[in-house]
Amino acid sequence: MVENGGLLDEIIFIVKTNVQEDLAYLDEILASNEKYSARYQEQGGFDYSQMWNVCEKGNVYVKIDDDVLFIEDSTIRSIVRRKVEHPEYIIVSANLVVQFAFAWIHYHLGAIHPYLPELDPYESTKPTSSWRKSELPFWVGPEDYNVTNYTAPAYHRWLPLAPGTGSTDSTPIAQTKYMVGGSGWDDWQVGAQQHYSFLENLEKGELWRYVFDMWDVQYDRLSINFMAIMGDDIVAMSPMPKDDEELITQKYSKKTGRRELLLLALVVFDANLFSAIDVVVDGHGLAVHNGYWVMASQDGKPGIDSTDILDRYRAYAEENVCVR
Predict the structure, then answer these.
(1) Rounded distance between C-alpha atoms, residue 286 and residue 64, angstroms
(2) SS3 298
(3) What angle do CA 285, 167, 121 make, to 5 degrees?
(4) Cα separation of 158 and 197, whole Å?
(5) 265-322: pLDDT as tens digits
(6) What is the DSSP letter of 258?
(7) Helix, strand or coil for residue 91?
(8) Which residues lie below 8 Å from residue 235, measured CB to CB, with a gap of 6+?
(9) Residue 298 β-bridge partners
């Protein structure tokens, strides 16, 4: 918030739930600051199109989904600054851990470490009270272990491979590709490995492993879990369809021809004043996304919510963020 030396003038909570416990907690948050407000949406389904009605021209909006687990201190400032300095960009996304295409990118940047699910169900069911990788034992299992055949208990942890006993080649992340969808979207094990790797990098002070300057999405679909966008563009896109993500990251650019106009500007005018890109990821703005709905437990099958990941982030928050 601006009042705390930040950039946000106000925070608007978009409410699409009837869980009374969550609504009561939101009421506490709203009462804590007059700059907080809420807009209530129709219940059910994956249609979030109504939320964009709050947007007005002339404002920069930072959209943050409710399943974002970690935000580096400089992330909001980084994506807002890049958006303001480059008004030709439609959106500037944060550099998200657990984002379908960026699982592959982070893997190739060396940010992902070898982890596998613990095979001892008794040890795995003990409540998690620490977020630190250094307090985990090494993974123990057969040499021919195949993680795709693993049946996870209702609550379990993942363990690092001991040095010299294996590499990421034998872990879920090795199956990722740079693509829309794929295992970076629907494979909960890929998500779990990214979370454990992130917490290891966080403990070691090695978040630099994720950093790059900027990524040009080039009409590919991009998750909009955490991004900066101008209200002017939102108003121009209205009324927003159910699939707002597709319109914002793909169709709007093609409809307006903004990318082609920027290419023309590069040729006709000073190339230093324009860039022929319009949907970008700011590699300096790091954040962590819990996962996609398809990664959740379904039909009796395990999912990312079968792990102790949320307890680990809670332990980190209680130690470093929620200190009173």
Answers:
(1) 13
(2) strand
(3) 90
(4) 10
(5) 444 444 444 444 689 999 999 999 999 999 999 888 889 999 999 999 999 999 999 8
(6) H
(7) strand
(8) 55, 56, 57
(9) 301
